[in-house]
Amino acid sequence: MNEDYPTFSDSPSNRGASVEECQRMIHKSLLSPQVRFLREHLEKAGCRVGDNFIKAVKCDEMGIAGGYTKGEGIVVCSNQMESQDDVDQVLKHELIHVFDDCRAANLDWTKCAHHACSEIRAGHLSGDCHLKRELLKLTSLKIRGHEQECIRRRVMKSLSASPFCSGVAKASMESVWDVCYNDTEPYDRAP
After folding, report:
1. Rounded to two decimals, what is the model's pTM?
2. What DSSP string describes 46-90?
3. What are the pLDDT digits (tens) for 143-190?
4. CA 62 to chain CA mean position, Å
5. Which of 32, 40, 127, 156 is the most exposed place for a label (fewest CB within 10 A)?
6. Cβ of 59: how many Cβ atoms within 10 Å?
């Protein structure tokens, strides 16, 4: 997701973590193997991601777990985080967007196909749609073809929120699907 940061609120919420709890979970996530792997590969690609690049915030917009904005960094919506695993997942997903932004000199977030490609990669490489994650959410699913259907659903949700994808989201996603789904860099294969 590469959009403006969600709006913030001072209104109380009983859901999720406080900003302080979320910030502690972010620091713990930075030590996890997959997050460390992604940060190391970002550094190798010439893009340093310091600790202040990732911030916990309280978000007004429901259903948004976090986001990445070029030149500003990653936000994690504390009020949407209920566990350490939630924070780990958001960071893995958003760091794939950062990696894409870092390695692709011509990435243009205002082009729907570019945005779609990064969402496909982030969904595939972060494990957003691993079967066990979906089972834990008790979503209806089928075994065969589940991961790709889940990624397509999540990509469409993200693209539908982008003003640059109005009327072209599905076609943009389909036009880049094969290339982007099979692009597993910085991994040798999808984790």
Report:
1. 0.86
2. T----GGGEEEE--SSTT--EEEETTTEEEEEGGG--SHHHHHHH
3. 556 789 999 999 999 999 999 999 999 999 999 999 999 999 999 999
4. 16
5. 40
6. 23
The residue whose two tokens read 């880049």 is: 176
- CA atoms of 152 and 156, how far apart (whole Å): 6
* Cβ neighbours around 52 below 10 Å, total: 7
Q: 155: buried, middle or exposed (CB in 10 Å: 19+, 13-18, 0-12)?
A: buried
For residues 94 and 122, the answer to whether their CB atoms sit within 8 Å is yes
- What pLDDT does 124 receive? 96
Q: Which of 120, 131, 185, 190 is nearest to 158 (CA)?
A: 120
CB 65 within 8 A of CB 84: no
Q: Please give the positions annotated as active site.
A: 94
Structure tokens at 33: 């193997």
Task: Supply 161's token pair.
Answer: 């929120």
